[in-house]
Amino acid sequence: RDNAFCEQSSYEYNGRVEQCRASSCNVALPRGSVTGSRQVAHTAKDLMSAVAQQPVTVGVHGAMGDRNAFQFYKGGILNTDCGAKVDHGVTVVGYGTDEKG
């Protein structure tokens, strides 16, 4: 609502608490350009279908399973038990598999 969506390259996650840098990032989507939303069913297949069309925002529990898994995430596929409380929003822009499937 208050800021644009930043390009990941200019506002990468670093696992530290810092001041908001939204005013100095490279803008990917200008403020106000998201004008609608719709709900996606809670299945991997439906999420993959939606992400194939556009980025999708999802709510996650930051303290899921292994408490440090989300806080210190650096890359790859996060594979841990789901938490019970939604307290973070993330944007899904792609999907895939790794050597474990």
UniProtKB/TrEMBL annotation:
GO terms for molecular function: cysteine-type peptidase activity. One of its GO terms (biological process) is proteolysis. InterPro entries: Papain-like_cys_pep_sf, Pept_his_AS, Peptidase_C1A, Peptidase_C1A_C. It holds the Pfam family Peptidase_C1. Residues 4-99 form the Peptidase C1A papain C-terminal domain. Belongs to the peptidase C1 family. This is Peptidase C1A papain C-terminal domain-containing protein. It comes from Haptolina brevifila.
